[in-house]
Prior knowledge:
There is one protein chain. By secondary structure, the chain is mainly alpha-helical. The chain has one domain (11-196): VKOR domain (de novo design (two linked rop proteins), Up-down Bundle), CATH 1.20.1440. The chain is 71% helix and 0% strand. It has seven helices and no strands. It starts with 12 loop residues before the first helix and ends with a helix.
Amino acid sequence: MINLNFFKNHTNQKNLYMTMTISAIVGLIASFWQMIEKIAILTAPTEPLSCNINAIFNCSNILNVWQSSVFGFPNSLMCIVFFVIILAIGLVGWTGGTINKNLRLTLQAFTLFFIGFGFWYLWQSIFTVGAICIFCLFCYAAVLAISFTWLRINQHDLPISKNAKKFIDATVADGSDLFIWLSIALIIIGEMVWQFA
């Protein structure tokens, strides 16, 4: 199906950790910049933000709604912490270090939380708020890439049934696991086209 020679061998995890590290850097830059914009809107609420591209890609509309501070603090702050942790782990793995299985599985669980949270947040942005924050798209793309790498790194250690393991092994072997993550991205893109086209 999909040729993923770069990631083909489970033992060649350095490439996976490199992808994780680069994705974490992208997510960290996007979430840090979004945090700067949040501070800017708090200090000067009437000033336009640098990330206000047009009526659709408009950070001001997004950063002023409750969905941008679900837990009482800006979502971007939570993302900064997440991406810093993933960046550190990615660098350890990329440089040949060993990551404890329980830590890997815990971080994969957090990444899956961010997959769900990000999907909900983008859904809210598109259909409730009626605007998109460009930084959120970069953060979510980074989370999808990180999820891709965690699945491949942890595929033999997942606490799941034998049948589920066989399914994951088969999807990783033929590269169709990438299709799962790309499908989520395509759903988001489809939602944006549906709402704003």
